[in-house]
Amino acid sequence: MMLRPRWRKVFADVWSNKTRTLLVVLSIAVGVFAIGAIAGANALLSREMTAAYLAVNPADISIYCDAFDDDLVRAVRRIPGVADAVGGQTVSARIQTGSDQWRDVTIYVVNDFKDMRINKVYPAEGAWPPPHRTLLVERASLPLIGARIGDLVTIRLPDETLRQIRISGTVATPNLPPAALTNQTYAFMTFKSLEWLGQPEFYTELNMTVTGDRFDKEHIAEVATLVRNKIESSGRTVYFTYLPEPGRHPAYQVLQPLFLLLGFLGALSLFASGFLVVNTISALLTQQVRQIGVMKAVGARSVDIVVMYLAGVLLLGGMALVIAMPLAYLVAAGLTILIAGMMNTDVTSLAMPLEAWLIMIAVGLITPLLAVLLPIFGGARVTVHEAISGYGLGKGRFGRGRIDRLLERIHGLSRPLMLSLRNTFRRKGRLALTMITLTLSGVIFMSVFSVRDSLLLTLDDALKYFNFHILGVFNGFYRTEQIEREALAVPGVIAAESWGFDTVRRVRPNDTESDSIVMYAVPADTRMIIPTVLEGRWLLPDDENALVINSSVLGLEPDVKVGDTVTLKIDRRETEWKVVGIVRGIGGQAMVYTNYPYFARMRGFTGRAVAVTVQVDPADAANQERVAKELEAHYKSVGIRTGTMQTTAILRQQNELFFNILVAFLLAMALLLATVGGLGLMGTMSINVLERTREIGVLRAIGASNSAVQRIVITEGVIIGALSWALAMVVAVPLAKLISDSVGMAFFQTPLTFSFSVSGALIWLALVTIIAAVASLVPAYQATRLTVREVLAYE
């Protein structure tokens, strides 16, 4: 079957200049790949994590309160709106991981492993259900304790009792926070094993599902209020109420903003690739203006010209899809397996949803078409007279503009360098498009490094905000004088301060209640907090019912202002508090602060505390760990039972792991953008060399060597790279601040402490110089292959 002449021309245009075609196809493919990989991974993870989460029949409501038994569970089941209710107990213990090393472990006590109706766990390896006097360890937690199935481990219970217990197997629990990221250890046992450990058998946790729409947050909150009132009416204190996001894996709420940010960067890479398509089609139209004139002279209409060139672009987009779609799927599948493993979720299928494929096809075909509409319509409108006489699209001559005249005033440069400089500004429209691509790449690259520096600076601010190195929580109340005196007796401790804390809920004017908020009771002149006051003031020594809230509280209760009187429910009692200040929130956790003496008097433990904050010197990680161990041992020797000892060094390590993962993803997208920028520059230089074929021939005719021609071309590319870096520096600071704020709001509900990365700017300067030089090598090599005879015959 013979193709019509117009379609033979379309294929000939694509095939005749293979380098140009390859650059355009790769540029489009990079953008499609970025969009497809992110969209595919997002769709796969959303489906797999949601399916795994819903399979465990997660609790819609979890309430932690004073001890209760099956009678209360049965009473709660009869409350309207409650579909099912199950009691449980959580034991905070410690497990020995070395000769003098212990790790916190949360042990979930289950009534009947064979009849788990809510928050199910599934056997992964070993015994099921756990035999008497054994533990099941959550599978991602097992490597953290350095043990294997069958090992006998030592656990320290809250009453300081040491018991040895065997690990009989592992379980999968996709509804718990991922151990790999949180560095937490989880285990499970039966109530019979709990009794063997000498611990009381009762429930402290109530997990419920609701009837009706389980995705209706308001409905779930209403049922939670009814249950909470029922528990409090029985004389028990509700300490915490947890309402997870309905139908969503808890970890996916962290992934969603990450994918939105990565998707935005992927869209930018696709946007940048469009500039190379525009440059290429514009150059092709310039070269073929006489062909267009001839086609019109023999009867072609403007619409025929437009359709023909659009078909060529569609062909390029189709070729890009052939490259990009398989690679995008492989990366999406790999990301899904990697992230699902980190989130402790099994992947049951890697079949990418149809919408992800359709997104790739749409962006691969439609985006290039939209990019070239303007130059194609402009080229198609040229008249036969303009085309044949050579006018209409311009030759890009140097010397007519202000920049050209300014460059003519520059003296003292070598002739080859001057030629490179003038050639740079010869095609200003093409230069502008290339500059936009490289500048965008540089801005994003510098912004990613700035986000990393801002994350670490924000972490530093958080650790300075909490100006201590060790936080110890006790299993009971002890005299503040004794707590602080014994802490100061440990070598390395330079300051100690007793704190109280509780969980509270705001009672709103409409009688609804907020989520639980942490209240810290601290001395007004505390040295362990260095708050940033945003509005109002900090606590004073003579304050009584004064309350300072952090900015994260405003995310839950936006109507609260300085000077307001708010009602807080503490241990079933409603009390009035006056908001005297707002301080900056750290990490997105809602916190309020009050004066310790007043709080202790109101709660009935004057002169006693349940926690201690400690400063050590030196404050390095090794010394913090050493002092924490010695402090715990010393407290034990004087009869003070400790529950946990947390060092800020461990907290920093955990957060830096998450930060590094986040930055790695962002940096990968930034490098993709840099790749698009390099391809764009290579395409621009190739077009420039092709258009200057005769000029290069003249240079060769008057004795220019191959190396001299190469230096002119490469220098031109490096100049473009340097100019793009200078422009990127101007744009990067405000845009990096915007991206930094967006990352902070997405992950921590507060803007990050911004820090522009000078090192990132210098790294990009080196990188863009290398990219520009490498991108110019192929065009420079092409220029040296042209003979004098070829260039004189060039039309």
In short:
The protein has 24 helices and 20 strands.
How would you describe this structure to a colleague?
Helix 8 packs antiparallel against helix 15 and helix 15 (428-465) packs antiparallel against helix 20 (648-691). The relative contact order is 0.11. The longest helix has 44 residues, at 648-691. The radius of gyration is 34 Å and the shape is elongated. It has a six-stranded mixed β-barrel. By secondary structure, the chain is α+β, with helices and mostly antiparallel strands. The model is unreliable at 391-396 (pLDDT under 50). A hairpin with a 2-residue loop joins strand 16 and strand 17 (573-583).
Distance between the termini: 32 Å
Query: Could you report the average pLDDT, rounded to the nearest whole number?
Result: 83
User: Largest sheet, if any?
Assistant: 6 strands, mixed, barrel
Helix content: 40-55%
State the total count of DSSP E strands: 20
Unreliable residue stretches: 391-396
Tally of contiguous helical segments = 24
Main structural class: alpha+beta
Strand content range: 15-25%
Anisotropy-based shape: elongated
Rounded to an integer in angstroms, the radius of gyration calculated over CA atoms is 34 Å
Strand order of the largest sheet: 2-3-8-5-7-6
